[in-house]
Specification:
The protein is about 10% helix and about 45% strand. The protein is mostly beta strands. The chain has a domain of about 100 residues: Immunoglobulin-like (Sandwich), CATH 2.60.40. A four-stranded antiparallel sheet has the order 1-3-6-5, with no helix packed on it. The N terminus and C terminus are likely disordered. Keywords: Signal.
Length: about 150
């Protein structure tokens, strides 16, 4: 019985270690300079007030489904469904704002799953200055579905 409990505890330890490998990252879309995925915070000036914050769950295993929670400072459209990506599109005319998305649970394509509490926070502001090169994160609509594998 003690050996069984020890093996069970070791298995739980492995599960908790793997949950730390899955992280939520974000980029700001509609910026004057190229962006890179970052975690847990992304921030950038934007070329207009109609900007977006795109979140993704970065993990080493193929994802089947993700449960998201999210909130934003201003009104906008959230498109998270149950895929690996989650997007907030700002509908406010406010020159600045923020959005946060958290992955709370992930189901992998191999049938395993994890409870997570991984979040990213994106901050954007519409400022003046030269626009060097517009940049948008273009995630195809199919990528928001759990049926589509994202590499």
């Amino acid at each position: 019985m003690k050996a069984y409990l020890l093996l069970a505890a070791m298995g739980l330890g492995v599960t908790s270690l793997s949950s730390q490998a899955a992280t939520v990252e974000c980029v700001i879309s509609g910026t004057p300079t190229p962006q890179e995925w970052s975690s847990p915070v992304c921030a950038s000036p934007t070329t207009s007030t109609a900007s977006s914050v795109v979140f993704r769950l970065n993990t080493s295993k193929p994802v089947a489904e993700v449960s998201w929670t999210y909130q934003s400072q201003h009104s906008g459209r959230w498109d998270c469904r149950n895929g690996q990506y989650c997007r907030f599109s700002n509908y406010s005319s406010s020159p600045s704002g923020s959005a946060e998305a958290c992955a709370t649970r992930v189901l992998y394509k191999d049938g395993t799953w994890e409870n997570l509490n991984s979040c990213a926070y994106g901050s954007y502001w519409h400022g003046s200055g030269p626009i060097l090169k517009p940049f948008n994160v273009d995630v195809p609509e199919a990528a928001f579905s759990s049926e589509q594998l994202i590499d």
